[in-house]
Design brief:
With 132 residues, the protein is mainly alpha-helical. Helices cover 56% and strands 5% of the residues. It has helices at residues 15-22, 26-34, 52-67, 72-112; strands at residues 13-14, 41-42, 48-50.
Length: 132
C-alpha cells in the first residue's frame, strides 16, 4: 500500500507524525519496534525518529497486515526472506559483473596474442578461386 508522500527530510519523523500519516496508533508502532519489525533511530532526547527506509518498511508491514491478513510472526519471516533475497540478488549481480569483466579481459588478451601461441598451428588463410 504505497501512500503518496512528499520529499522527506533526512532527520526523520516523530512517532506522532508517522502514526497520523499511516493511520495507525502510536502504540502499534511501538509494538512493531518491540517485536523487532521496525528499528527507528533515537534523538538525543530519546525520541523515536523514523527515516524514509523505516517508512518504506512500515508500508510493507501495513500492506501485509491490512491487505493480506498476515500476523506478526509471518511478517517477520517475510521481511527476513526479503532481506536475504535482496542480498542474494546483490551477490548475483556482483558475480555477473566479475564474470563479464573476466570474459572481456580474456577476449582482449586472446585478440592481442599472435596465432603462433596457439596449441594447433593454423596456416594463414588463402583466397579460394571459384570457377564458373
Amino acid at each position: 500500500m504505497a501512500t503518496p508522500r512528499k520529499k522527506k527530510a533526512r532527520a526523520g519523523y516523530m512517532i506522532s507524525a508517522v502514526a497520523e500519516l499511516y493511520k495507525v496508533h502510536p502504540q502499534t508502532l511501538r509494538l512493531y519496534e518491540r517485536v523487532g519489525l521496525l528499528k527507528p533511530s533515537r534523538s538525543q532526547g530519546n525520541t523515536r525518529l523514523y527515516t524514509d527506509s523505516d517508512l518504506e518498511r512500515l508500508e510493507v508491514i501495513l500492506n501485509l497486515t491490512r491487505e493480506m491478513g498476515v500476523n506478526l510472526a509471518g511478517i517477520e519471516i517475510i521481511l527476513n526472506m526479503r532481506e536475504k533475497m535482496a542480498e542474494m540478488q546483490r551477490q548475483v549481480e556482483e558475480f555477473m559483473r566479475f564474470v563479464q569483466e573476466e570474459l572481456a579481459r580474456g577476449l582482449a588478451a586472446a585478440q592481442q596474442r599472435p596465432a603462433r601461441d596457439a596449441i594447433v598451428r593454423v596456416s594463414p588463410p588463402r583466397p579460394i578461386r571459384v570457377h564458373k
